[in-house]
Specification:
Two copies of one chain form a homodimer.
Chain A: H1 4-13, E1 21-24, E2 32-33, E3 37-38, E4 48-49, E5 53-56, E6 70-78, E7 93-96, E8 108-111, E9 121-124, E10 134-135, E11 146-148, H2 156-164, E12 169-173, E13 177-183, E14 187-188, E15 199-200, H3 203-213, E16 217-223, H4 227-238, E17 243-247, H5 258-263, E18 269-275, E19 278-279, E20 283-289, E21 294-299, H6 303-321, E22 332-336, E23 340-341, E24 347-354, E25 360-363, H7 372-377, E26 380-384, E27 390-391, E28 396-401
């Protein structure tokens, strides 16, 4: 059996980032910048007032006090957005609003709270230093500065910086397109009637949601147990997607493993199927298919196995497709409240609940690879190393926190 | 000035959860369940095999050993999805695949690895206990069990449990619709040419991204400094949105505060404008507008002020609209690597970078409320309490971790 890390390394070695595209700012949300973004102009692009008040020559009010106030005529007013070239003559002042262009000649702004707020004439009873309440051109970002480095994921603050710097679009890698395929004659659509022997299909819903949560876009597909149909579907989708993920049809049993049958020796691509030393999720496959060498992950069909496999191999693959270093597992440790068991030689990922303080973790009842009830209540996976067959209550375990 | 908590309490007191709707499973991703979801059928809905192997009467192979193996005729085979009513007669066996309906009469499945894998006849060289490799009907979820409680956010695992239990749709609260409005004659579209006095508009891009990150949907709008136009826009949007968020036009200065002018005493709704004891973001407003009493948050226009205000008041409002208890701020503490200052009487939210281990936090250069450069590099807000004017390097501060 291969170690988890060996399979992950095989996956990551075959994945190339998706082609960058020029995206508008809304389309670029949560995308990953593909080239450094630089400032074509300084930010702010002009000297402006940080307060509502009066633009003055500071020297005119240098001697102002409560007892000996200075009154200046108000010769103009400049609201934000006013693009006129206004000037403040010595011995006068100009009313100015927050964000407005600083008039020529002015070297300070006196906040309205420090004045009588007059409209024709304004009275000043204290001095302010030169530069007071002025935001200088370029005091946030200088022209030519790198705003954001390639590889930055664009959240709200990064999008805002790009917008404020005048970038209407950026070169970025958008959400990778992932086609999710469930196989099996037993699958029926949730909401439809069921007869014994059939089950409601859940893996495409789960994996599509997980793909979107990890920053991809997803389409869902389903096929029965006919290898030729599955092969044709995989072929079609390989030309429309950046990554294919199948579930089911890869167990060890034989003639009914439709994904194995479809992809083994068909010339469709280069896929290897392996046992990975983990539980759940031992049977895994990975390779590339179609003319674009589209990567394909073939996950086991039990839903908890598919979930854990996606977490270990699919999420890092999505990071790599976006040009990011694969996220490390949130590394935390917590004390087990109850004992756990694990098959020797395989690393277990047991479903558990981390306590509110993160100090303890409780393994859930129902650890079968088909048991979604426990998975849906879990907020963590408890990791039991290959060489351990059990851990006791009070032992400290590695824990992966789930979103 | 009002404390932050008083303003937040005012906001939350006025917000009602959005109406739930019946959503298909893909539409329900990341939505919040509005009623308990229960299991109409047990899960699994029929006894089935957890392995590829042979369904047997366990008593037939109870004496099997390597030296005295038992050979049974294979009378049928049952793949997953086969809905026939197959029976295993005593002294015979049936080939069975993972997930397939257990044939009548069988009380154990022998994994193929423990046999010779024969097709007409199969040889068994060890016994298995009754129930071996069988998943019993209902061993994951019993009929009538609560699958998920109202108030659960539907991530991949929860969606999977709903699908596997046959729910094609659920009653849930979808993403609240938020209309984001920026005001100001100075605003120009990113990507367009600019003249001094104008700035590229960034707040709608930032706030829309922040709304989506917090689980809402967003539309972006812009208006100049004409109060009647702003009032008409707010009126229209109040009938299409679950929450309005404006930025700008609420400072203390007077006639150019367009949002204040539009909403004060107009009969459009009930809005109060207040100073909140925080920095950035002192001028805040909240109320309800329009026939549906749509809540409206009026945030200050400086981009960092708007960002911090959204974090403190907008995110909890989105939680409340989804019927969730407002998320607590991720409560963590970290040691300052450098000193910080804060205006007395106001709580500061300074932009900083948490170290990789989360133990230290470094305040960034450029803490002005217009300085997006530092915000875009920050991964944390450093909280300085109202009663402190400074904190020293080595002091431990409360820190809000940003996504």
């Amino acid at each position: 059996m291969d170690p988890v890390e060996a399979h992950l390394a095989r996956v990551l070695a075959a994945i190339r980032p998706v082609e960058p595209a020029r995206l508008g700012l809304e389309a670029a949300e949560e995308a990953v910048l593909a080239a450094d973004a630089t400032a074509a102009t300084p930010l702010p692009s002009f000297d402006n007032s940080s307060m509502d008040g009066y633009a003055v020559h500071a020297s005119d009010i240098a001697a102002a006090t409560d007892l000996a106030s200075v009154t200046l005529p108000v010769t103009d007013q400049v609201p934000a957005g006013d693009t006129r070239a206004v000037t403040v003559a010595p011995g006068t002042c100009v009313r100015i609003m927050t964000g407005a262009l600083l008039p020529g000649g002015a070297d300070a702004v006196v906040p309205v709270e420090l004045t009588d707020g007059g409209t024709d004439r304004a009275r000043f009873s204290q001095p302010v230093p030169k530069g007071y309440s002025i935001r200088r051109r370029g005091d946030d970002v200088a022209e030519g500065d790198v705003l954001l480095l390639a590889g930055t994921r664009l959240g709200p603050a990064q999008i805002a910086l790009l917008a404020a710097s005048g970038h209407g679009s950026v070169l970025a890698r958008a959400a990778p397109r992932v086609a999710v395929i469930a196989t099996g004659n037993e699958l029926s659509e949730p909401g439809s009637p069921l007869v014994p022997g059939q089950i409601w299909e859940s893996n495409t819903y789960m994996l599509a949601a997980a793909v979107r949560q990890a920053g991809g876009s997803a389409t869902r597909h389903r096929a029965g147990d006919d290898p030729e149909t599955v092969l044709a579907l995989i072929g079609d989708l390989s030309e429309q997607a950046d990554l294919l993920i199948t579930s089911g049809g890869v167990s060890m049993g034989g003639e009914h493993d439709v994904v194995k049958a479809a992809l083994s020796g068909s010339g469709a691509g280069t896929i290897t199927f392996r046992k990975v030393a983990m539980q759940p999720g031992m049977p895994q496959g990975f390779g590339v298919v179609g003319p674009d060498q589209t990567p394909i992950l073939t996950l086991p069909g039990n839903p908890v196995s598919a979930f854990v496999s996606f977490w270990l191999f699919g999420r890092p693959a999505l990071d790599a497709l976006q040009g990011l270093a694969p996220r490390l597992q949130p590394a935390r440790r917590a004390e087990l409240t109850n004992p756990v068991r694990s098959p020797p030689g395989r690393r277990s990922f047991l479903r558990g609940v981390l306590g509110p303080d993160g100090a303890t973790v409780t393994p859930l009842t129902g650890q079968g690879s088909h048991q979604l009830g426990a998975l849906a209540r879990a907020n963590a996976l408890i990791v039991v190393p290959e060489q351990m067959a059990s851990m006791a209550a009070g032992d400290v375990a590695d824990v992966i926190s789930l979103p």
